[in-house]
Every structure is written in C-alpha cells, then in structure tokens.
Prior knowledge:
45% of the residues lie in helices and 12% in strands. The chain contains 16 helices and 16 strands. The strands form five sheets. A five-stranded mixed sheet has the order 1-6-10-11-8. Strand 10 (388-389) and strand 11 form a beta hairpin.
Amino acid sequence: MSRDVRTIDxxxxxxxxxxxxxxxxxxxxxAVLLATLALVPAYGVAAVLPTLLAGAFLGAVIVLVxxxxxxxxxxxxGATAVAYLLAGGAFAAPTTTVARxxxxxxxFRTLLEGLVTxxxxxxxxxxxxxxxxxxxxPPFVMALGGTVLAAWAATVDTTDRRRxxxxxxxxxxxxxxxxxxxAVTTPLALLVGAILLGTVEAPLATVVGIGITALTVPWLxxxxxxxxxxxxxxxxxxxxxxxGGGGIVGAPLVAGDAPRTILRTQIVPPxxxxxxxxxxxxxxxxxxxxxxxxxxxxxxxxxGALVRLATMDTFDGVVWNVDSTGALGGSGAFRRVGESxxxxxxxxxxxxxxxxxxxxxxxxxxxxxxxxxxFEGRRSREQQLAFRxxxxxxxxxxxxxxxEGDRWTAEVVVPPTLSDEQxxxxxxxxxxxxxxxxxxDSAAQKAADIARNATSPxxxxxxxxxxxxxxxxxxxxxxxxxxxxxxxxHGVSRIDMLLTEDRMIGDDEQYASAMALMARNLGxxxxxxxxxxxxxxxxxxxxxxxxx
Length: 548
C-alpha cells in the first residue's frame, strides 16, 4: 500500500535548500542595510556605516546558523541579545570601551539603558551625531534586529515545510506567505523609522527606497516561482517608468515644497533658559566682588579674539535676555549637539583650552564659531551629553552649571574683522528677532538724529557706536575705587537717564543696551553680547587668565 507524498516548494527546487536559504538571507540583509542608510546624513558616513554593516552581517550570520541547526525562535532571539551585548561595545558604544573594542561595565550599562534612552538622545542632539554616548545604539539595533527579523521570516519555508497531508500543505503555504510579507515590509518600516530619526535634508531616502524596491521585487518573484528570464526586459521597462514617473515626476508634484516630517523638529529639549536670570544683570558683580579674582583661564586664544559668555536679543523694558520662544535662529534656541558642529564661517582655525576658576552659572565661555568641544575630567561624559549649543549666536550652555576646575578643549574658527570698506555694500541681514516690548523715547529720538547722515547700514552702525564713544563717559560706578558715581542696570529708565542727562555716564552694560535699542529701532538686527577680552598687552600665546 503506497502513500501519496507531496513536497511544498515555493521558491526553487527542494534539492537546494541551502542556496535558497543563503540567497534569501543575503537579500534581506542588503535590504535592511539599504533602509538604514537613510540615517547617514544624521550621523556621518564614518560614524555610522561600520555600525550598520556590523549589525546586518551579524544578523545574517545568526539566521544562517540558526536555520542550519534548526534552532527555534527563542534560541535565535537569545543569540541576537548576546551578539548585541558582545559586539555592541565596539559598534554601538565605542566611547565606553577600552581601545574602542573591549567592553567594560559602563559599556553593558550603556547598551542596556540605551535600548530605552538612546532614541531620545538621537532626537535631541544636533547632527552630525558622531559616536557620542549611546547614539549609535538605534542604528545598531535597527540593522541587527531588522536583519534577524527579515531574514528569519524570508527563510521560513526552508525548515517549516511539511510532507503528506493536504492540511499540512495549506499551513505551510500560509506560513510561507506571512514570512515573505514580513521579509518585504521590514526594510520598508525601517526606512520610515530612519527618515523620522534623520534630518530634513535626506536625499538618500528616495535613492534607498528605489534600491529596496529594485532588490526585493525580483527576489520575491523568484521565491514565488513567478520569475522567468523572458520577463526581465518587461520588468526593466516597468522599473524605469515607475522610477521616472514616481520618483522624478510624481513625487515633486504630490509633495511640492512641503518639508519632510521628522521627529527631530517636533521635540523641544526640556532645558529652558527662561528659568535662568539674565547674565547681564550681574555685570557689575564681576567688577565689584570678583574684580581681582580669576574667573576663567583660556589657552591658545588667537590674537584679537574675544571670549563670548552670553548672547541676548530680546528686551522687556527691564533686562536683555534670550528669546523666550526658543524660535529657530533666536538666542534661546539651544540644542544638544553631537561630536562636531557644522561651521559655515570662514576664518582662522584654532584650538583653545578652557579652565573654569571662579566663574559660575550655566553659560560656557566660547570663542568664534565652535566646531568641536570635548570636556575633560571626572564629569566629562555627563557634561558632554548635557552640553547645548546655539548655532545662530555661537553661545553655549551647560544646564547643570559650571564648577571650579571644569575644563574642556574646543576647536574653533575665528572670523576676520571686516573693515568699513568691506562692509560698504553690505545689506541688512535677514535675521528673525522678537519684537522689543519697550524702547525709551530718548533712544528712538537719538537714533533718528544719528541716522540722518548715514548712507549705508554699516555706516549707520558705525555712527551709533562713534556717538556713544565720543560723547559718553565711562564709569563702573565703584566709588571706593575712585570711579565717578554711575547707577547699574540697563532697563528703560536707566537708558533714558543715560541719553537725556547733561553727561552720558555708564559702562559696557548701559552703552551696549543703548546701542542695541537704537539699532533695532532703526531696523538693524542687533544682539547684546556679554563676555571677556584679554587686557591690553597680554601675551595670548600663553594661558590668559580673565577676571571681571
């Protein structure tokens, strides 16, 4: 008595399961790798590409070995977790390892915590993210986990085929279809996730989507036994039409100029400078209480460079402060940054070392345009993750505050000082600034008088500065040190007093506030910058100790 034996073979011959398994795994790994390449603009090629390659490779090896040994899903899941912990140090958290390879206890803690917290870090750090902290955990998890899921689903028929009864045949077919669906949709889901975690400027997304389609469609046809060499030409023509019509013509018509939706632009960091007192209110304190005490020491300061502490562009009638709205381009828009900061200004590059002495508060002294800042010392990792930077103003803050002994190295670019001739044809920059709530009438009137003879925006700014410098008297108001009496403050009443009394008497606090108010009243964008300059005759080739 014979038994009718049927073999289910939906992709190739049953005599070559190893080839079918390997091909499906390689295609799945490549599709996942293509999908995660959309993260490159957010991280940088050198930072994230090794992580993605390692994750896809390890995932493919785990699936191939698991299928060859007929392992169950739980075993494969455990192997994936072990691979994540052992290889994650080198590829997902290299800054926590020894020689960027050997994992430590900090590495394992970072990897485990990173499964929950690293996604938030990625979204609140400013690209390029680099390899800072645990920011590489998401791409490693996406590449490793995505490859295991897609490849395991793509190879489901090589171990789950059943022989004999028709009901077993129907079950095998159903599992086959589900597996193929998961294998195809996993890279597409990862692509959407990579776009959401990426940047607005992500030209790779379209290329990646086309690449995934070009890779998976022929493979899917082969797996379902619908592939035939005579159909290659037809498929090629259809692909060209789809890519040209959808990617080049259709997409722009549908999307228009609408910006790409990403999670990074929807998340606002919790740190709010509105909770901090305006640093300009403590200007006199630097000269009264800390006049002889060192505040900060800077080594490597270029000739003529100034040290910036805080930049403010809003005025409420009482104090100058940062833009409370946190609008993009405003002085209150601080973002966590990655390993490097894009610099769009030409100038003199320099490397400076900063050591905090008596300076306190959340504002970090910076020079020029910072391209990279690396903290040193016991709190360096904590500080690096908390550090925030404003691209529009070049200012930086540390939410936890400065402490004596804090130190860091910064790579900076110091822009050149432009002459009046170079600025002669310069137009007013399109800078978005919040409206000033109050401007004293005296500031508006004096600004109008000065503007009568100015023929360009640059000459107008020079005229404002020259008038205050030539007609005003300088005094910190420290009578004990022999200064002429001069009130502190820079609000409406103090500026009105400065500009209406017989003699203008004040210091940097009042003159900077008055000039900014007059400039803004005339339509010139202006900010008040508080900081330090080396004393005249200081040898900047040696460490410069700055006091109040």
